[in-house]
Design a protein that fits this description.
globular, alpha+beta, seven-stranded mixed β-sheet, single chain, binds D-xylulose, 24 strands, 547 residues
């Protein structure tokens, strides 16, 4: 028997199948939006508005079509759907889907002879969904923070200060543009990407789970319910309407939310006993997929965005940066996280500028210099979240002398100003030092080991830099794709918890990792010494870019 873990990420849809016996992934299938669905014309799965790069969205129909495509390919591979005991999933955090009121009928009456996409084409109240990479809601954030009595107050309630990409701010922007959309019930339901994906499997609107709900600036982190004040602000004084549209009840992330729909049973051959466990956000699922269950374990995912997170008993929400979510595998603790928007995009761009997309040359240029001797490059091809940078650009510090002022480089000048190979190391070091610095800011400061995953974890040089900066061994997982893997294990955990509510996630999944590299003590000492200076430079870079 097996468990399915779905993942709808920025760039594609993937499924991982976990064998109940071996606890190994035995089958995967994926669809890449840009490559496999070119008709939607996305770049990295996104549309960035040409007149305003802060507006970023993805077409909901592309997401549905990608799910159809993966399922059809599984069928063509003669995948045995009858073996699946339970399903769960992962969605890029913060993105939102707006269903028309007719949608619940459409979902409940899907005809197994046709695809999801063809039958749900009229289900959408908004066709282009705001996603996590959007940063167009500065005004809404300022409004909400002011009304709540400051950024710290929003953070104290919801776990994060008001962030542009967080769903509540996106809802307020839409509400201000067209309140009729919600007040007339033209839009009957708002899902997160995770609960939207779950809805396709249960054949009804799926609830939002507690962990992903914390990425909305609407959920009360401590009382585990919608915050009345935040609901009211975001809906211009209609909290009851918004609560209904979001779904009154928010579920524990490990809760079973129903059986797989009759559409899925008839079209693909799932059994009528196959259960669906709450879907959650990609970072919460990665925390599960990396098996981070104790304080002191730090996870780093190096993907489209770079995220760093760990489990903690006491959240320390900050008005400056960072997020706290309810831990998806143990709702009595929390998950602290920092998210950098310029993840793989920044590395790809600098690699292209310096060594023409040659990754082994990139690796050598990161490995071949002595730590901290080459200055730093704060490189933001997109507006950044940590630290908050609103306009793309870069600031180069060529060395660390006292009179170093920093050179601002505008995006149009990247190609002629940033070609020196040393910039590869400058970008990598600046990112990892920033992670260490700000983990301390948000209280993730007890670190025993660091577990790294995501595309860039293939780079030995980056892994070594992480080990040296943190002064801890760096481990990597045997199985990649932590989000879909985490979802598959959460499916198993949720099912077991139905019978034995005290089953802990560790009873299901307690992974072994292998040590990829150990820190070099000399390099670690250097990085620790330079950290205060680095902090000054990061602040300087942000100030220069704000001018
Ligand atoms: C997290 C964040 C991104 C998205 C997409 O806060 O914005 O990591 O979850 O991966």
């Amino acid at each position: 028997m097996s468990f399915l873990g779905w993942d709808l990420s920025t760039q594609g849809v993937k499924v991982s199948v976990l064998s109940e016996n071996t606890h190994k992934v035995v089958y995967t299938k994926s669809v890449n939006f840009d490559k496999d669905l070119p008709e939607f014309n996305t770049k990295g799965g996104m549309h960035v508005r040409s007149e305003d790069a802060s507006v970023v969205s993805s077409p909901v129909k592309m997401w549905v079509k990608a799910v159809d495509l993966v399922l059809e390919q599984m069928k063509a591979d003669r995948f045995d759907f009858a073996q699946v005991k339970a399903i769960s999933g992962s969605g890029q955090q913060h993105g939102s889907v707006y269903w028309k009121k007719e949608a619940s009928n459409l979902l409940a009456n899907l005809n197994p002879s046709y695809s999801l996409n063809s039958q749900l084409k009229d289900a959408w109240a908004v066709l282009n969904c705001p996603i996590w990479a959007d940063s167009s809601t500065r005004k809404e954030c300022e409004f909400v923070e002011k009304k709540m009595g400051g950024a710290q107050m929003v953070a104290n309630v919801s776990g994060s200060r008001a962030y542009e990409r967080f769903t509540g701010m996106q809802i307020l922007k839409l509400w201000r543009a067209d309140s009729g959309l919600f007040l007339s019930h033209k839009c009957a339901r708002i899902s997160l990407v995770s609960s939207f994906l779950a809805s396709l499997f249960v054949g009804k609107f799926a609830p939002i789970d507690k962990s992903d709900a914390c990425g909305m600036n609407l959920f009360d982190l401590h009382h585990h319910c919608w915050s009345e004040d935040l609901l009211s602000l975001v809906s211009e004084g209609h909290p009851d309407v918004l609560r209904e549209i979001l779904g009154r009840k928010v579920y524990d992330s490990s809760a079973v939310i129903g059986k797989v729909s009759s559409y899925m049973q008839k079209r693909y051959g799932f059994q009528n006993t196959c259960q669906v466990v709450c879907f959650s956000g990609d970072n919460p699922n990665s925390l599960a997929g990396l098996g981070l269950s104790r304080e002191g374990d730090l996870g780093i995912t190096l993907g489209t965005s770079d995220c760093i997170f760990g489990v903690c008993k006491q959240p320390k929400p900050s008005a400056d940066m960072g997020h706290f979510f309810i831990n998806p595998v143990d709702n009595s603790s929390f998950m602290g996280m920092l998210c950098y928007k310029n993840g793989s995009l920044a590395r790809e761009k600098i690699c292209e500028l310096t060594v023409g997309k040659n990754w082994s040359a990139f690796d050598s240029s990161v490995a071949n210099f002595r730590p901290t001797t080459q200055g730093f490059l704060f490189f933001y091809p997109l507006p950044e979240i940590v630290p908050s940078v609103r306009k793309p650009g870069a600031v180069l510090f060529e060395n660390l002398s006292d009179d170093e002022k920093g050179k601002v480089v505008q995006t149009a000048d990247f190609a002629n100003q940033l070609v020196h190979e040393a910039n590869n190391r400058r970008v990598v070091e600046a990112r990892i030092l920033s992670m260490r610095l700000h983990c301390e800011t948000i209280g993730l400061d007890k670190i025993d080991r660091v577990i790294v995953t995501g595309g860039a974890s293939q780079s030995r040089a980056i892994l070594q830099c992480i080990a040296d900066v943190f002064g801890k061994p760096v481990l990597i997982a045997d199985q990649s794709d932590s989000a879909s893997l985490g979802a598959a294990f959460r499916a198993q955990h949720g099912l077991l918890k139905m019978k034995r509510p005290n089953t802990s996630f560790l009873d299901v999944y307690n992974p072994e990792f292998h040590v990829a590299t150990h820190p070099n003590n000399h390099a670690h000492k250097k990085y620790s010494e330079v950290l205060p200076e680095f902090e000054v430079l990061e602040n300087k870079a942000t100030a220069l870019l704000f001018r």
